[in-house]
C-alpha cells in the first residue's frame, strides 16, 4: 500500500505541477495599449507590380479619400445574423454587427461589432468610435498601358444601380462608369448566416482592349485588443493548397521587407485557399471561388500600423464589346462549427473548419468537441452535455481504469506480506526493494498501474480546456442557477455569501477571485478529498502532509478556470470514486471510506481519555 500511495502522490504532484506551469506560462499578458490606428488617408498598400512573372499586380494606392464636402451614401445590410451597411465610398463593407451575439450577458448589452469604418467613410448613420477601422474593400488594378484613373480605387464613390437593402435573397449592385467606355459593377449577395458573395464585373464598351486585375483586401488599422494567450491563435489565418497559414500580429509586424511591397509574405495558391483575420470567436476571411488560382498576401504597413490580407487575381484583358467577371466570397461573422463546416460543402471552401484553433492536440480536441456538440443537440443544455461527455470519456478509458483498480486491490491484499518483508529486512532498503519487486512479479502486480488513469486525464483535460476556451458554442452557454456562462469562471464568492449579501466581489477569472472560494471550486476540493479517502492515509509524514493539502491547493488553483472545465473535473472525480469503490469491493478489498474519513479528522484528547480511543473516554 505504501508503493500505491507513492504512485498516487507522484501522479497528483505531476498534475499539480502541470497546472502550475499552465498558470505561469499561459497567463494572459496585459492588453496592448499601442495606438489604435490612423485615418485611412494616411495608409498605402503599394502601387507597383508584385513580380512580372506572376501575372498579378499589387492593388492601387488606398491613400485617396472621398471628395471633401460630398455626402457619401450607404446601403443597409439586414439578415437574421447580421446588420450594418456598405459604404458607397469604395463600395466597402465596413459596418457590421453580429446580431446573434452580445458583448456581455447584461440585459441591453450591445451586439458584437465586427467591422468598423474609417474616419474617411464614417457618417452620422454609423455612430461609433472609428479609431480602429476594420473593413473589407474590393477593386481593380490597371493593366499595362491603362491609366490608374480609369479603374475604381478604394475611395471611388459608387452608384447604387439595383436593390436597396442587402438581405438573404435580395442582392444589391453598385456601378461606376469611368467615362472612357468601361463600366464596373460590384454585386453583393448574402446568405442566412455570414457568407457574402462578391461579384465584380468589367464591361468594355470602348474601342480598344482593356486590361485589369481584380482584388480583395481586408484591412485592420492597429493591433486589436487580443487576449494574448499562448494557447490561442489570434491574427492571420488561411489555407494555402491544403497547408494551414497562421501568423500572430507580432510576427506580421516583423515580416521581411519585399521590394515594392513592404513587410509582406506572399503565397501563390494554385486553386484552393482562403486568407483573413481571426479573433477568438470571430473571423473575416477572403475566399476565392474553389479552383480559382490567386495570390494571397499578408502585409504590414510600418508607418501607418495597418495589418492587411489580400487576394489578388490574375490580370485579364477584356476585348471591346465583351465583359469579364470575377466572383469570390467574404466570410464575416462567428466561427460557428456547423456553419463553417457547411461552407466546406457549399461553396466548397477547403478545410474551412480549421479556422477554429484546435491546437496541438487537434486529434483529441476535434472529436471531443464533435461529441460534446452531438450531446448538446440531444440534451439541449451545455452543462448537462459536459456531464454526459464525462461519462462517455470515463467509459472509453474504463478498461484501463479497471486494471488499475484491480491492481490497487491486489496491492492491498499483499500488504501483510509486505509488512513481513519489511520486518525481515529491517533497515536494508536494497534488500527490501528487491524482495518486494520479486513479490510483485510473483503475484503479477504492476505497482505503476495506479498512475495510468490519472496521467491519461492530463491530455483529455487540456483538450477539453481548449474546446471550452476557443469554441463559440460554449460562449455564454448556461448550465443552471448562477452558472450562465460555462466558458467563464464561476462568478460566485464566499465574500458575499454566494449572492445573499449585496456586496461586490473581485473580477471573475482573477487569482483574487479564486481565493474567495467559488462554489464549484469548493465542490472540486471536496470531491478530490473524498477520492483520497478511498485509501488509508500514508504512514510517511511527508506523504501524509502532501495528501492533506493537495485537494485544497487544487481547489484554489482551479477556481479561476472556466466553470465548464471545473464541472468536468468534479464529475470525473465522482465517477472515479464510484468506479474504484465498486471494483475494489468486487475483488475483496472494499475501501474503508468512512473509517479513512474519521481517521483523517484530528481529535483533541482530553484528560481521562484511554490510549487508542477517539473522543471522550469517560
UniProtKB/TrEMBL annotation:
GO function terms (MF aspect): membrane insertase activity
Matching HAMAP family: YidC_type1
The record's subunit annotation is: Interacts with the Sec translocase complex via SecD. Specifically interacts with transmembrane segments of nascent integral membrane proteins during membrane integration.
Q: How does it sit in the membrane?
A: Multi-pass membrane protein
Q: Where are the transmembrane segments?
A: 7-26, 374-401, 451-472, 551-570
Gene3D superfamilies xref list: 2.70.98.90
This protein's encoding gene: yidC
Record's protein name:
Membrane protein insertase YidC
Amino acid at each position: 500500500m505504501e508503493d500505491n500511495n507513492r504512485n498516487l502522490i507522484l501522479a497528483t504532484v505531476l498534475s499539480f505541477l502541470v497546472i502550475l506551469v499552465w498558470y505561469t506560462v499561459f497567463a494572459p499578458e496585459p492588453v496592448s495599449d499601442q495606438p489604435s490606428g490612423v485615418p485611412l488617408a494616411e495608409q498605402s498598400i503599394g502601387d507597383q507590380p508584385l513580380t512580372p512573372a506572376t501575372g498579378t499586380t499589387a492593388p492601387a494606392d488606398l491613400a485617396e479619400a472621398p471628395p471633401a464636402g460630398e455626402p457619401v451614401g450607404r446601403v443597409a445590410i439586414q439578415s437574421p445574423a447580421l446588420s450594418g451597411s456598405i459604404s458607397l465610398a469604395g463600395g466597402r463593407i465596413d459596418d457590421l454587427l453580429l446580431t446573434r451575439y452580445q458583448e456581455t450577458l447584461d440585459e441591453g448589452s450591445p451586439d458584437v461589432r465586427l467591422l468598423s469604418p474609417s474616419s474617411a467613410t464614417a457618417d452620422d448613420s454609423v455612430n461609433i468610435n472609428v479609431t480602429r477601422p476594420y473593413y473589407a474593400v474590393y477593386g481593380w488594378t490597371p493593366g499595362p498601358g491603362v491609366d490608374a484613373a480609369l479603374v475604381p480605387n478604394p475611395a471611388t464613390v459608387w452608384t447604387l444601380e439595383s436593390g436597396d437593402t442587402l438581405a438573404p435573397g435580395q442582392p444589391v449592385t453598385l456601378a461606376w462608369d469611368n467615362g472612357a467606355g468601361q463600366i464596373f459593377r460590384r454585386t453583393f449577395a448574402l446568405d442566412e448566416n455570414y457568407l457574402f458573395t462578391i461579384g465584380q464585373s468589367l464591361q468594355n464598351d470602348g474601342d480598344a482592349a482593356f486590361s485589369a486585375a481584380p482584388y480583395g483586401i481586408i484591412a485592420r488599422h492597429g493591433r486589436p485588443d487580443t487576449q494574448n494567450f499562448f494557447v490561442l491563435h489570434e491574427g492571420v489565418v488561411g489555407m494555402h493548397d491544403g497547408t494551414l497559414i497562421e501568423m500572430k500580429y507580432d510576427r506580421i509586424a516583423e515580416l521581411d521587407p519585399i521590394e515594392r511591397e513592404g513587410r509582406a509574405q506572399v503565397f501563390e495558391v494554385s486553386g484552393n485557399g482562403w486568407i483573413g483575420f481571426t479573433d477568438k470567436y470571430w473571423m473575416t476571411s477572403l475566399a476565392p471561388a474553389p479552383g480559382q488560382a490567386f495570390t494571397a498576401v499578408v502585409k504590414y504597413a510600418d508607418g501607418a500600423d495597418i495589418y492587411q490580407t489580400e487576394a489578388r487575381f490574375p490580370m485579364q484583358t477584356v476585348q471591346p464589346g465583351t465583359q469579364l467577371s470575377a466572383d469570390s466570397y467574404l466570410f464575416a461573422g462567428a466561427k460557428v462549427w456547423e456553419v463553417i463546416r457547411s461552407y466546406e460543402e457549399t461553396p466548397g471552401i477547403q478545410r474551412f473548419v480549421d479556422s477554429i484553433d484546435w491546437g496541438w492536440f487537434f486529434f483529441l480536441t476535434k472529436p471531443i468537441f464533435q461529441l460534446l456538440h452531438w450531446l448538446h443537440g440531444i440534451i439541449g443544455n451545455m452543462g448537462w452535455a459536459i456531464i454526459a461527455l464525462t461519462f462517455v470519456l470515463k467509459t472509453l478509458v474504463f478498461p484501463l481504469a479497471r486494471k488499475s483498480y484491480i491492481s490497487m486491490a491486489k496491492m492491498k491484499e499483499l500488504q501483510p506480506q509486505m509488512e513481513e518483508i519489511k520486518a525481515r529486512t529491517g533497515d536494508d532498503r536494497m534488500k527490501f526493494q528487491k524482495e518486494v519487486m520479486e513479490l510483485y512479479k510473483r503475484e503479477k502486480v504492476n505497482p505503476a498501474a495506479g498512475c495510468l488513469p490519472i496521467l491519461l486525464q492530463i491530455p483529455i483535460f487540456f483538450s477539453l480546456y481548449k474546446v471550452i476556451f476557443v469554441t463559440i458554442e460554449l460562449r455564454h452557454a448556461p448550465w443552471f442557477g448562477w452558472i450562465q456562462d460555462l466558458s467563464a469562471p464561476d462568478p460566485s464568492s464566499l465574500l458575499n455569501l454566494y449572492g445573499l449579501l449585496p456586496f461586490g466581489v473581485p473580477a471573475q477569472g482573477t487569482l483574487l477571485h479564486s481565493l474567495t472560494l467559488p462554489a464549484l471550486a469548493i465542490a472540486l476540493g471536496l470531491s478530490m478529498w473524498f477520492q483520497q479517502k478511498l485509501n488509508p492515509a500514508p504512514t510517511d509524514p511527508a506523504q501524509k502532509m502532501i495528501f492533506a493539502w493537495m485537494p485544497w491547493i487544487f481547489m484554489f488553483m482551479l477556481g479561476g478556470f472556466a466553470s465548464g472545465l471545473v464541472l468536468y473535473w468534479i464529475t470525473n472525480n465522482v465517477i472515479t470514486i464510484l468506479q474504484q469503490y465498486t471494483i475494489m469491493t468486487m475483488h475483496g478489498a472494499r475501501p474503508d471510506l468512512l473509517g479513512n474519513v474519521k481517521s483523517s479528522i484530528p481529535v483533541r484528547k482530553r484528560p481521562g481519555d484511554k490510549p487508542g480511543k477517539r473522543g471522550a473516554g469517560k
